[in-house]
Design brief:
The protein is α/β, with parallel strands linked by helices. It has one domain: Spore Coat Polysaccharide Biosynthesis Protein SpsA, Chain A. About 25% of the residues lie in helices and about 25% in strands. It has a 7-stranded mixed sheet with strand order 5-4-1-6-10-7-11, with helices on both faces. Strands 2-3 form a two-stranded antiparallel ribbon. Strands 8-9 form a two-stranded antiparallel ribbon. β4, α3 and β5 form a beta-alpha-beta unit. α6 packs across α7. About 40% of the residues are buried.
Length: about 240
């Protein structure tokens, strides 16, 4: 019996065009955080290889700073180069995402957007996002808030305790039917967005939460590299 070829309908935009100033504080090399090593390989390479490991991914577009896009680090090609495009980022995150979306092949009916600063996203959480996006809604990986939340005034005094029962911490990847996210990124004010799902929310387009992973933390500060190293051994 002949095995059925997987449907490759997923396009991925990995946003790696940021300067990451906070993560570079105290780093003598001044290297971009997405190029620094953690858990045995460069931060960005973790994500590239994770998405290329999926049979349903048709193309990964890696959005780099303009100067790096013209001369990418050689390790970036330690993945499936036939399913890899490198493009230059824009002045804002939203512009970088749009550049990546425009480079996805026409056959990609599902678009995932992932921050390179989250190198340890698991295949299971990626799969949950893909499944929800294929069903016709936007989908974001997220985790429920477990800490008690306090609203605090400018004087440092507690104003009130916030009900956390309906609050979730958004992660990436975030996935969408391709036409939905293209419409959202074409809407007025899209340039100020730091979260792609928020663009859909503004237009009243449905976005679903699927369970994320504690591994999928975002590297922001220098101390986060050690934390990511520890989380890399965590299994979902």
């Amino acid at each position: 019996m002949t095995a059925t070829a997987p449907v490759r309908d997923v396009g991925v935009v990995i946003v790696a065009a940021g300067a990451g100033h906070r993560a570079r504080t105290g780093d003598a090399s001044g290297e971009l955080k997405q190029f620094r090593w953690v858990a045995g390989k460069p931060v960005l390479l973790h994500s590239l290889q994770a998405f290329h490991a999926r049979a349903d991914v048709a193309m990964v577009v890696c959005v780099l700073p303009r100067e790096a896009a013209g001369d990418p680090p050689p390790w970036i090609f330690q993945c499936d180069t036939e399913r890899l495009l490198v493009t230059a980022g824009g002045a804002t995150r939203a512009e970088s995402v749009r550049n990546g979306l425009e480079d996805l092949p026409a056959g990609c009916t599902v678009a995932l957007i992932h921050d390179a600063a989250r190198p340890l996203a698991t295949d299971a959480m990626i799969g949950r996002v893909v499944e929800a996006a294929r069903a016709g809604t936007g989908a974001i990986a997220a985790l429920p808030v477990v800490d008690t939340l306090k609203e605090v005034g400018p004087d440092g005094m507690v104003i009130r305790t916030i009900d956390r029962s309906s609050l979730w911490r958004a992660q990436t990847p975030q996935g969408f039917p391709r036409e939905m996210i293209l419409k959202a990124h074409s809407s007025p004010g899209a340039g100020a967005a730091t979260d792609d799902a928020a663009l859909c929310e503004r237009l009243g387009l449905p976005v679903r939460v699927v369970y994320g992973s504690e591994r999928a933390m975002k590297i922001t500060d220098p101390a986060d590299f050690a934390r990511a190293e520890a989380l890399s051994t965590l299994r979902e």
